[in-house]
Specification:
The protein has eight helices and eleven strands. The chain is an alpha/beta fold and 288 residues long. The chain folds into two domains: 34 residues; 212 residues, Rossmann fold (3-Layer(aba) Sandwich), CATH 3.40.50. A nine-stranded mixed beta sheet has the order 5-4-6-7-3-8-9-10-11. Strands 1-2 form a two-stranded antiparallel sheet. α4 runs parallel beside α5. It is globular and about 55 Å long.
Length: 288
């Protein structure tokens, strides 16, 4: 029996361009060694009938139901632009072990304490592991639901059935579409998973946090297109051997990218530094 040959193509991880042949440099963006082999999969999604929306004058657009969500963590809210808007998507990236999961769980606890329903989708840790961290951080988790899922269709089914204000996916590199033969974390999987989740967030009106890993070069793992798809990109940085962490925005459609959040890692979690000036000037007098 002759097996059907699987069609593959080389995709640029920077600009998601498909060149006609394998080459060392992408002709579109000029990047070197950025081509990854991906399987070409025909989408099984049925085409939707186009919905025609009547144009509306800008002066008549209502913002009554578009109030943002505030966590109460001053440094976190300020970096986001003051609040987290419904339907928005945020990519939180950082090196492994830097404290991304700790930060986002503390933020989830803060949002939940303000009577917001939070769904935490974990593809890396079990529910018991998240519970242990929550107890260490003194998070009760009354309004926080946890789901251990890695299949994209299962994630979408859960989101369709629940009325959540905030959804956290930790991490986007672990979510995959079973119709793709390529493993989760590849260019095609990340593009498909992130696109479907962002689309559903805008449709349902919940805020979406995507947790992402960074490579040794300090950039988000996966296609560069991922940063263009979301509304905000935050980098959580610092030295794992020291106490302080920096939350830095590199993109924010609803706020400034010149804000900087400073946190101190303590045994009970991350603590916002109320006066970052003292932190930056702490060693200045010693150098005089």
């Amino acid at each position: 029996m002759i097996e059907k040959k699987i069609k593959t193509a080389f995709v640029c991880t920077e600009c998601v361009t498909i060149p006609p042949s394998r080459q060392g440099q992408c002709r579109e963006c000029g990047g070197w060694n950025c081509l990854a082999e991906e399987q070409i999969v025909k989408s099984s999604r049925q085409s939707k009938t186009a919905e025609i929306e009547k144009p509306q004058k800008l002066s008549e657009v209502s913002l009554e139901k578009f109030s943002g969500f505030e966590s109460g963590i001053c440094e976190f809210d300020r970096v986001l632009g003051g609040s987290l808007l419904p339907g928005s998507s945020v990519l939180l990236a950082g090196e492994p072990g830097i404290g991304k999961s700790t930060l986002i769980l503390q933020a989830a606890g803060a949002y939940a304490s303000n009577n917001l329903n939070v769904l935490y989708i974990s593809g890396e840790e079990s529910s018991a592991q998240i519970k242990i961290r929550a107890e260490r951080l003194s998070i009760k988790g009354k309004n926080i639901s946890i789901a251990n899922l890695t299949d994209l269709h299962s994630v979408l089914a859960v989101l369709d059935s629940g009325g959540y204000h905030l959804v956290i996916v930790d991490s986007i590199q672990t979510i995959g579409n079973s119709q793709f033969d390529s493993p989760p974390g590849t260019v095609g999987q990340i593009r498909e998973s992130a696109g479907r989740l962002i689309e559903l967030a805008r449709e349902k009106g919940f805020a979406l946090f995507l947790i992402g890993h960074v490579t040794k070069e300090g950039i988000v793992a996966g296609p560069k297109l991922l940063e263009h798809m979301v509304d905000a990109v935050l980098y959580f940085e610092g030295d794992s051997q020291h106490f302080y962490r920096l939350l830095r925005p590199v993109k924010n459609r609803y706020g400034s990218i010149f804000e900087l959040g400073v946190f101190e890692m303590t045994p009970s979690g991350l603590r916002p530094v109320d006066n970052p000036s003292n932190f930056f000037l702490s060693g200045y007098s010693e150098q005089e």
